[in-house]
Amino acid sequence: MLGLFRRSIQPGRGGAEFLAHGFGEHGLTLAGRLADAVRAWDRHARGRGYPELTIHPAATPVEDLPAGHVLDKASSRLVFRWPGGDAAPGLAVMAVSEVE
Predict the structure, then answer these.
(1) How far apart are alpha carbons 61 and 78 in whole angstroms?
(2) Mean pLDDT, rounded, of the chain
(3) Is the dihedral of CA 21, 25, 28, 32 positive or negative?
(4) How far is it, in rounded angstroms, from Cα 29 to Cα 88?
(5) Measuring CA to CA, which of 5, 17, 19, 66 is 20 to 30 A from 36?
(6) CA distance 52 to 34
(7) Nearest Cα to 69, choosing from 49, 54, 47?
């Protein structure tokens, strides 16, 4: 299981910090993968705007997904498309089916 938390680092002045905490057998790995994805976003995508999110049935084949970063869940496949991003169709960031 994965918990994602947000806390203000400068109350009243903006700024926030996100914390990922993994639980269970795969928690540490999953939290590390999420943290890596956030760091990559910070380096390469911050300032380009917010992602477009589309949701597809879990059985959707990779070739039928739009280009973007895929988050696989037990009941769905989430595809995030970042403005200015260049991800290939079906690029998997992480699979979380074991935590849903």
Answers:
(1) 13
(2) 75
(3) negative
(4) 24
(5) 66
(6) 18
(7) 54
Say if residue 13's pLDDT is above 50.
yes
Q: Please say whether the beta carbons of 74 and 57 come within 8 A.
A: no
Q: In this model, does residue 99 exceed pLDDT 60? A: no
* Band of pLDDT at residue 97, cut at 50, 70 and 90: very low
One-letter-per-residue 3-state SS of the chain: CEEEEEEECCCCCCCEEEEEEECCCCHHHHHHHHHHHHHHHHHHCCCCCCCEEEEEECCCCHHHCCECEEEECCCEEEEEECCCCCCCECEEEEECHHHC
Contacts of 31 (CB under 8 A, 6+ apart): 2, 20, 21, 22
Long-range contacts at 74-79 (CB < 8 A, ≥ 24 apart): 74/100, 75/100, 78/53, 78/54, 79/53, 79/54, 79/55
Quick check: pTM over 0.85?
no
